[in-house]
């Protein structure tokens, strides 16, 4: 059995102001730092064999805060980065919705039909999520793995594990900042123990 913990990075300044991040990066807020430290405290008695993190600063910093004084290795991997939003990155959501109304609507309501010439498609992220998951399962049999990534990436990964089509992507449990999801994989079958839990966070 492989135990996998999924974590979304802590709150960033761009989360607060409503900017799209993607491959861009907003700095962690004080709240984001506190929540990551609280999650590390919550997990302090759970043996974690390895941490995988997106190469984006907000995710890697969250991983470091969770690890704390542990000697557990943190492995950066570009495949865990958020979906690239192209020229939307760093811009306010309300501005994007006004200027690209059809594309923005498709992004949230019909992701399987979303198309743009800037950034990635949801199918692009699905390919790297599937590849990353299979590599982790193969590399860490009978171990406990913690993965720190991003909202859209984690939704796509959990949809893949549930065999959900992309049109159902946003029907899943909301993945908040610094939230924790636990999955146990037995004989290749994933079971969700809990999802999007933020009981360790300050509200």
UniProtKB/TrEMBL annotation:
Its EC number is 5.4.2.11. It comes from Peribacillus huizhouensis. Keywords: Glycolysis, Isomerase. CDD domains: HP_PGM_like. PROSITE patterns: PG_MUTASE. It holds the Pfam family His_Phos_1. The lineage of its organism: Bacteria, Bacillati, Bacillota, Bacilli, Bacillales. InterPro entries: His_Pase_superF_clade-1, His_PPase_superfam, PG/BPGM_mutase_AS, Phosphogly_mut1. It is an enzyme of class 5 (isomerase). Belongs to the phosphoglycerate mutase family. BPG-dependent PGAM subfamily. This is phosphoglycerate mutase (2,3-diphosphoglycerate-dependent). PANTHER family: PHOSPHOGLYCERATE MUTASE.
